[in-house]
Amino acid sequence: MGSRVSFFISLSIHTVLFLSYYLIRSLNTQNFSEQIKLTLSKGQIPSLHFSLPKSLGEGPDASSNSGLAGTPEAEIERFKNEIHFPPEALEQRLESDCSWEVVIGPNGAARNITTIKPCKYKVFESQFRRSISSWKFQLPEGNIIIIPVSFRIESDE
């Protein structure tokens, strides 16, 4: 590679870094030097450290995410997102719609699970009971919720 090409590549990289630094700095009014730190020591490999202020990078607060946070509806959705489709049902391409009534017990544990709409296949009932046995709801003791679950195989057809 010629010296002109090397110089041009080096100049381009430095220009991009320089412009990025000032662009990011202009977007953030906090002390930018605390967020990026380049350490150079004689005889050592240079190290570059990035850090974000504690308030950045954590995402929005769950309570500000939705008006449903902390409600039975939100807890039902949170639980339904954790139920896994049983592999043996997937192999056989089984599907079913089911629903259960659950009474929330001490420490958010499920207590008194009653089947409202039975599953077509026992494998789904087993999966639901296995999932709910270790789940902790963030609802007060004594709340009664109904959890409908559709075990469906999504296809692009």
UniProtKB/TrEMBL annotation:
<feature type="transmembrane region" description="Helical">
    <location>
        <begin position="6"/>
        <end position="24"/>
    </location>
</feature>
<keyword id="KW-0812">Transmembrane</keyword>
<feature type="domain" description="TonB C-terminal">
    <location>
        <begin position="70"/>
        <end position="157"/>
    </location>
</feature>
<keyword id="KW-1133">Transmembrane helix</keyword>
<protein>
    <submittedName>
        <fullName>TonB-dependent receptor</fullName>
    </submittedName>
</protein>
<keyword id="KW-0675">Receptor</keyword>
<keyword id="KW-0472">Membrane</keyword>
<dbReference type="InterPro" id="IPR037682">
    <property type="entry name" value="TonB_C"/>
</dbReference>
<dbReference type="Pfam" id="PF03544">
    <property type="entry name" value="TonB_C"/>
</dbReference>
